[in-house]
Design a protein that fits this description.
Blueprint lengths: L11 H12 L13 E7 L12 E6 L2 E6 L5 E8 L6 E6 L5 E7 L5 E5 L1
Parallel strand pairs: 1-7
Antiparallel strand pairs: 1-4, 2-3, 2-5, 5-6
Length: about 120
Amino acid sequence: MKAVVKKPLMNNRALMASKRRASATPKKRRIRQTLDRFVVVATDFNNVPKSSVGWTASLTTGTTTITADFDDFGVVRFPTITTLTTVSYILRIRDANGVVLTNKTIPADREFYVARF
């Protein structure tokens, strides 16, 4: 004759807790993306990016000026300026002929700036 081994029964509270753990949906993680370098986007007043072939942008703070080139879609990335910025800047955008199109003041604590003109 075989010996029958009885499993201990789970009490009702433990059974319900294990069901809750099994059916619990995993918590969604919020992904926060940040820009690691300062970016400027040149748009018109309707937020349409400007065609910026040959354009340059310069940022000035105190006696330091940093210049970078726009891509064809109105975006310029300043590779030496980390975000969030710690100082305010004066932004000057020049076209391919060197004519200043706009001057803007950019406050501190920014990851990007949209220059509408």
